[in-house]
Amino acid sequence: MIKKSSVFFLFCLLFIYSCSKKEEKIIPNNVPLNYEDVPTVKVENYINRIYIDLLGREPLNIEKIRDVALLRDGKLGFDIRKQLITRLMTDSIYVPGDSSYKRAYYQRLYDLSKARLLEGAEDNEFESQIGIAQFGLISSRLLGDSIGVFSAMVTIDRCKNVLRARRAYQLGLIDINQMYAYMLNNPIYDVTNMNSLNFVNASFDDLFFRFPIRDEFSIAFDIIETGKGGSLFGGFASNKSEYCQLLVDSREFHEGMIKWCYLALIGREPTTQETYNLMVDYYPTKNLQKVQTLILMTDEYAHF
Predict the structure, then answer these.
(1) Cα torsion at 43, 45, 48, 53 (round to 10°)?
(2) Which residues pair with 57 in a beta bridge?
(3) pLDDT of 17 over the 60 cut
(4) If we measure between CA atoms, which residue out of 13, 22, 53 comes closest to residue 302?
(5) What's the CA gap between 242 and 186, in Å, rounded?
(6) Fewer Cβ atoms within 10 Å of its own Cβ: the N or the C terminal residue of the chain?
(7) What is the pLDDT of residues 232-285, one digit of tens each?
(8) Where are the domains of the chain?
(9) Which of 98, 79, 78 is nearest to 89 (CA)?
(10) CA-to-CA distance for 9 and 244, rounded, in angstroms?
(11) How far is CA 123 from CA 11, 55, 108, 251, in A?
């Protein structure tokens, strides 16, 4: 005779098994891509695009042959794509013409950022501004003009911050946010976006891909024009320098960087889900290289 306790035990086992068993779902036409069938010309085009987007140039023939073999040996898997991308971003071994892949990568990012915010202003334009300010500094000191001295020194620092940004970012001394703060807060950006009204509109549009709403504009305008303190994006600013820092520290700045990467690399805006997925890691770490890598690894970018 079977005991009631044994029956109850068997019933519990069957119940647990039935709850844990997952129903299999078949998705029609969901055939995994066989990367071994990808034509070599597509692999070469993928390598060309990566070199251009990361280094600003096409690969040399020897580089292309090497990287095609690398990707083929790895069966075009995502891990081997990541290995290639990471090498172009981080390899510091000497490369003729580039000094190193790493230096070329950071120079490219610096140039693209200047193109985005400063209309591609050359470094010599900042050096010219420094020269003018240094002459004004000497004149102000001779005249005993303390305000002129202070103004000239601020101008020199603002220009030097931009010129030092690439190297400082490459060495990890500043993050991407700080580099963008420097590219907002300098005499070239001031001239391009003359007066406070244009400066506010341009800073929002350049970083966030939108113009400020009425309340945002009113607060930002007062901060820059009158030095009146105001709160934006959960922070407080009372002058132009603090305002620029406030913008680049905001969550929306990070979203704007993700959007910029998608537009620059794929030619479309990210979906809400794509932005959310990347923001989880990017917002706290500010690791733009990881954002770029995840985009460059995709079949959409590769056209496979």
Answers:
(1) -110
(2) none
(3) no
(4) 53
(5) 13
(6) N
(7) 999 999 999 999 999 999 999 999 999 999 999 999 999 999 999 999 999 999
(8) 35-103, 117-192
(9) 98
(10) 67
(11) 77, 19, 14, 30
Q: Residue 228: what pLDDT?
A: 87
Q: What's at 264, amino acid-wise?
A: A
| Phi, psi angles (nearest 5°) of residue 156 | -60, -45
Q: How far is residue 255's CA from residue 251's CA, in Å, rounded to a whole number? A: 7
Structure tokens that stand for 94 in this block? 């000497």
Task: Concatenate the DSSP letters of all residues of the chain into one string.
Answer: ---HHHHHHHHHHHHHHHHHPPPP---TT-PPP-GGGS-HHHHHHHHHHHHHHHHSSPPPHHHHHHHHHHHHHTTT-HHHHHHHHHHHHH--SEETTTEEHHHHHHHHHHHHHHHHHHTT--HHHHHHHHHHHHHHHHHHHHHT-HHHHHHHHHHHHHHHHHHHHHHHHHTTSS-HHHHHHHHHSSHHHHHHT-SHHHHHHHHHHHHHSSPPPHHHHHHHHHHHHH---EEETTEEESSHHHHHHHHHTSHHHHHHHHHHHHHHHTSSPPPHHHHHHHHHHHHHH--HHHHHHHHHTSHHHHT-
CA distance 257 to 248: 10
Q: How far apart are CA 233 and CA 223, in angstroms?
A: 14
CB 240 within 8 Å of CB 176: no
